[in-house]
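Per reviewer request, we include the raw input and output of the structure prediction for the construct analysed in the revised manuscript.
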Amino acid sequence: MLEARGAVAKEGDTVLLVRGHLNLTPLMLRPGDLLHCKEGKFRHDDIIGRPLGTWVTGQSNIKGDTSRPPRLLVLQNSADLWTQAVPHRTQIIYDTDIAVIIFNLRLGPGCRVAEAGTGSGSLTHSIARTVAPNGTVYTFDF
Protein backbone atom coordinates (compact mmCIF):
# COMPACT_ATOMS: atom_id res chain seq x y z
CA MET A 1 0.00 0.00 0.00
CA LEU A 2 2.81 2.42 0.82
CA GLU A 3 5.30 2.96 -1.98
CA ALA A 4 8.16 5.35 -2.59
CA ARG A 5 7.49 8.91 -3.68
CA GLY A 6 7.17 9.38 -7.42
CA ALA A 7 5.24 6.15 -7.75
CA VAL A 8 3.09 5.56 -10.81
CA ALA A 9 -0.51 4.25 -10.65
CA LYS A 10 -0.65 0.62 -11.77
CA GLU A 11 -3.39 -1.87 -12.57
CA GLY A 12 -4.76 -3.32 -9.31
CA ASP A 13 -3.58 -0.39 -7.16
CA THR A 14 -6.02 1.23 -4.77
CA VAL A 15 -5.64 4.98 -5.14
CA LEU A 16 -7.49 7.79 -3.41
CA LEU A 17 -9.38 10.38 -5.45
CA VAL A 18 -9.87 13.86 -4.03
CA ARG A 19 -13.40 14.85 -5.03
CA GLY A 20 -13.62 18.07 -3.07
CA HIS A 21 -12.83 19.36 0.39
CA LEU A 22 -12.49 16.36 2.74
CA ASN A 23 -14.08 14.04 0.17
CA LEU A 24 -11.77 11.13 -0.56
CA THR A 25 -12.88 8.14 -2.60
CA PRO A 26 -10.90 4.88 -2.73
CA LEU A 27 -10.66 3.35 -6.21
CA MET A 28 -9.12 0.04 -7.31
CA LEU A 29 -7.74 0.54 -10.81
CA ARG A 30 -8.95 -1.91 -13.46
CA PRO A 31 -8.21 -1.45 -17.17
CA GLY A 32 -11.33 -0.64 -19.17
CA ASP A 33 -13.41 0.36 -16.12
CA LEU A 34 -15.16 3.69 -15.74
CA LEU A 35 -15.85 5.65 -12.54
CA HIS A 36 -19.21 7.42 -12.56
CA CYS A 37 -19.56 10.04 -9.83
CA LYS A 38 -21.22 13.38 -9.19
CA GLU A 39 -18.27 15.19 -10.75
CA GLY A 40 -18.36 13.25 -14.02
CA LYS A 41 -17.03 10.12 -15.73
CA PHE A 42 -13.40 9.08 -15.36
CA ARG A 43 -11.67 6.26 -17.23
CA HIS A 44 -9.37 4.04 -15.16
CA ASP A 45 -7.10 3.85 -18.23
CA ASP A 46 -6.53 7.62 -17.93
CA ILE A 47 -5.19 7.10 -14.38
CA ILE A 48 -3.11 3.93 -14.93
CA GLY A 49 0.47 4.83 -15.84
CA ARG A 50 0.31 8.38 -14.50
CA PRO A 51 2.34 9.62 -11.53
CA LEU A 52 0.42 9.68 -8.26
CA GLY A 53 -0.29 13.21 -7.07
CA THR A 54 -1.45 14.44 -10.49
CA TRP A 55 -4.82 15.60 -11.76
CA VAL A 56 -6.94 13.51 -14.13
CA THR A 57 -9.59 15.03 -16.41
CA GLY A 58 -12.92 13.35 -17.07
CA GLN A 59 -16.13 13.93 -19.01
CA SER A 60 -19.07 15.92 -17.72
CA ASN A 61 -22.26 14.07 -16.82
CA ILE A 62 -24.30 16.76 -18.58
CA LYS A 63 -24.74 16.39 -22.36
CA GLY A 64 -23.46 19.36 -24.30
CA ASP A 65 -21.70 20.86 -21.28
CA THR A 66 -18.84 22.97 -22.64
CA SER A 67 -17.74 24.46 -19.34
CA ARG A 68 -14.55 23.40 -17.59
CA PRO A 69 -14.19 19.58 -17.64
CA PRO A 70 -14.30 17.80 -14.26
CA ARG A 71 -10.97 16.98 -12.60
CA LEU A 72 -9.93 14.72 -9.73
CA LEU A 73 -6.63 14.59 -7.87
CA VAL A 74 -5.17 11.06 -7.71
CA LEU A 75 -3.26 10.36 -4.49
CA GLN A 76 -1.18 7.48 -3.20
CA ASN A 77 -2.94 5.46 -0.55
CA SER A 78 -1.62 6.01 2.99
CA ALA A 79 -2.76 5.06 6.49
CA ASP A 80 -3.66 8.67 7.31
CA LEU A 81 -5.71 9.25 4.17
CA TRP A 82 -7.30 5.79 4.34
CA THR A 83 -8.78 6.70 7.74
CA GLN A 84 -10.63 9.56 6.07
CA ALA A 85 -11.60 7.64 2.93
CA VAL A 86 -12.74 4.28 4.30
CA PRO A 87 -16.51 3.72 4.36
CA HIS A 88 -17.66 3.97 7.98
CA ARG A 89 -19.61 0.76 8.56
CA THR A 90 -18.28 0.62 12.11
CA GLN A 91 -17.38 3.25 14.69
CA ILE A 92 -14.11 4.64 13.39
CA ILE A 93 -11.22 6.01 15.45
CA TYR A 94 -9.79 9.25 14.06
CA ASP A 95 -6.19 10.52 13.90
CA THR A 96 -6.20 12.52 17.15
CA ASP A 97 -7.48 9.56 19.17
CA ILE A 98 -5.16 7.16 17.35
CA ALA A 99 -2.18 9.33 18.29
CA VAL A 100 -3.13 9.18 21.99
CA ILE A 101 -3.64 5.40 21.84
CA ILE A 102 -0.28 4.79 20.15
CA PHE A 103 1.51 7.14 22.56
CA ASN A 104 -0.04 5.60 25.69
CA LEU A 105 0.80 2.08 24.49
CA ARG A 106 4.38 3.26 23.87
CA LEU A 107 4.39 1.65 20.44
CA GLY A 108 7.33 2.03 18.10
CA PRO A 109 9.31 0.22 15.42
CA GLY A 110 9.69 -3.48 16.12
CA CYS A 111 6.74 -3.83 18.53
CA ARG A 112 4.32 -6.74 18.28
CA VAL A 113 0.65 -5.82 18.72
CA ALA A 114 -2.49 -7.95 19.10
CA GLU A 115 -5.74 -6.18 18.25
CA ALA A 116 -9.24 -7.53 18.83
CA GLY A 117 -11.93 -6.10 16.55
CA THR A 118 -10.37 -4.89 13.31
CA GLY A 119 -13.49 -2.99 12.22
CA SER A 120 -12.75 -0.57 9.38
CA GLY A 121 -9.01 -1.03 9.83
CA SER A 122 -8.33 2.62 10.61
CA LEU A 123 -6.47 1.94 13.86
CA THR A 124 -4.82 -1.15 12.37
CA HIS A 125 -3.30 0.86 9.48
CA SER A 126 -1.83 3.43 11.86
CA ILE A 127 -0.45 0.82 14.26
CA ALA A 128 1.11 -1.09 11.34
CA ARG A 129 2.78 2.08 10.14
CA THR A 130 4.06 2.82 13.66
CA VAL A 131 5.60 -0.63 14.26
CA ALA A 132 7.11 -0.89 10.75
CA PRO A 133 9.48 -2.08 9.40
CA ASN A 134 10.18 -4.98 11.77
CA GLY A 135 7.05 -5.03 13.95
CA THR A 136 3.93 -7.12 13.53
CA VAL A 137 0.22 -6.49 14.02
CA TYR A 138 -2.05 -9.47 14.70
CA THR A 139 -5.65 -8.41 14.31
CA PHE A 140 -8.78 -10.48 14.83
CA ASP A 141 -12.35 -9.66 13.91
CA PHE A 142 -15.36 -11.66 15.05
